[in-house]
Design goal:
The chain has about 100 residues and is mostly helical. Helix content is about 35%, strand content about 5%. It is built from four helices and two strands. The chain starts with a strand and ends in a 15-residue tail after the last helix. It comes from Salmonella typhimurium.
Length: about 100
């Protein structure tokens, strides 16, 4: 079987080089499967936490970044503590009554 990479718009369609996928047909060992798992899949499998689903509406969450540097994490959490962002993150204004129509 041949697989042609899409390139995601980085090059003209005629320049795509075919890739041999026969190596991908071979069964993978459990170790290879573990390495291929994303961190989101690992969290879901081990802790039953689905980080790709919104806890409020159930919609799909787009992961923008994964911050792993301890100093950056401390700086972000210190900023949240200072400005109270944790409490305000889910703030919604109170519902209003429908507008009154003039007679």
């Amino acid at each position: 079987a041949q697989l042609t990479p899409s390139g995601r718009g980085k090059r003209p369609a005629g320049d795509a080089a075919p890739v041999d996928v026969s190596a991908h047909d071979a069964p993978r060992s459990p170790e290879e499967k573990r390495r291929a798992m994303s961190w989101a899949q690992r969290l879901k499998r081990v802790f039953s936490i689905d980080v790709t689903a919104c806890v409020h509406c159930g919609g799909t969450v787009r992961i923008v970044a994964s911050i792993e540097e301890p100093t950056a994490i401390r700086a972000i959490l210190a900023h949240f503590e200072k400005h109270g962002a944790r409490e305000e993150a889910h703030y919604r204004p109170a519902a209003r009554a429908p507008p009154v129509q003039a007679a």
